[in-house]
Design brief:
This protein is α+β, with helices and mostly antiparallel strands and about 300 residues long. Helix content is about 40%, strand content about 15%.
Length: about 300
């Protein structure tokens, strides 16, 4: 991965694996040692920050569409949370409400897209294993997002006076935006995204580039297709694998996203409490097993703390 300073363009790493390539490299896994990260801990490079100026720091980037949507949705949540203090302050609330319509619409769009991509049979079968209450919450909130939120008043204000300034805003006669509309849309997205963390780690994949060989003919790429295994590849310049270099134990990148979801949840709940809006609070508790004890994180299970929404 490198940056073209002339155009300020980041070249993302790539790895091209087809069935025939998998057969050729399968033997390379036999006897491949599995180690910890360079510091003796599980590898944890973090997720790429879209606003980070220093692209020389190699972090995990999404390696497929739905992983990309999850990361973008978390980024939009951070943008909405950025406005929370201004929304709490009655002196800045109205103007902040207008400004926050832009990230809220981005958040709704990418969350709705992620939900649609997670509607294949495998995803539905996985959700069928969730607690009944979570299945019901997911279905009802996803339906409300699609039917009521996406093209609701938040979108109208975003289009007319948020991201643009449209003269029709003076004459349309549409009722001005209410804080309930903003927080309702924000809360629904946070719930859907938080529940989406309960899919297996194999539902998401990650990649990061570590640079090129001294002769410039090969690239070094790491991938993570399932917790806790990170694999380092040697590829040609087009992304086709040449060899496996090593395997390491790594943290699930979604830990970072889960932390961001918790921050978004706290911001939502604080806004509901302080402003007195008649919306439900979001409460998240670890799932418990039959013995009543919280599930423990281990290398054999999903490393995320399983979440239930109340």
């Amino acid at each position: 991965m490198h940056e073209d300073h002339g155009q300020n363009k980041v070249i993302m790493p790539k790895l091209i694996i087809d069935e025939s390539m998998l057969k050729r490299i399968a033997a390379s896994f036999t006897g491949l040692p599995i180690t910890m990260g360079p510091d003796g801990e599980m590898l944890a490079p973090g997720i790429v920050d879209l606003l980070e100026a220093d692209h020389t720091i190699s972090r995990w980037a999404p390696n497929d569409d739905r992983t990309g949507m999850l990361v973008l949705a978390a980024e939009a949540c951070r943008d909405v949370t950025f406005y929370s203090e201004r929304l709490i302050d009655s002196k800045t609330r109205r103007r902040a409400m207008r400004g926050v319509t832009v990230p809220v619409c981005k958040l709704m769009d990418v969350t709705a897209l992620l939900v649609s991509r997670m509607n294949d049979k495998s995803s539905r079968d996985t959700r069928a294993q969730w607690p009944n209450a979570d299945q019901k919450t997911y279905h009802e909130v996803a339906k409300r997002l699609k039917k009521n939120r996406l093209q609701g008043p938040v979108r109208w204000v975003r289009n007319k006076i948020g991201a643009h300034l449209d003269a029709e805003a003076f004459t349309a006669g549409t009722e001005y935006l209410k804080l309930d509309d903003i927080l309702g849309a924000f809360g629904d997205c946070v719930v859907l995204l938080t529940l989406s963390m309960n899919y297996p780690s194999s539902w998401f994949s990650w990649i990061r580039g570590l640079g090129t060989s001294p002769d410039g003919r090969q690239q070094i790429v790491e991938t993570m297709f399932e917790y806790p295994l990170c694999v380092r590849w040697v590829t040609d310049l087009d992304g086709y694998p040449i060899a496996l270099s090593r395997a390491m134990l790594a943290e699930d990148p979604r830990h970072e996203l889960q932390t961001q979801m918790l921050e978004a949840t706290n911001a939502y709940n604080e806004l509901v409490r302080v402003t007195g809006i008649q919306l439900p609070l979001i409460s998240m508790n670890p799932m418990v097993d039959a013995a009543g004890s919280a599930q423990k994180i281990s290398a054999t299970n999903n490393p995320l703390e399983r979440i239930r929404i109340f």
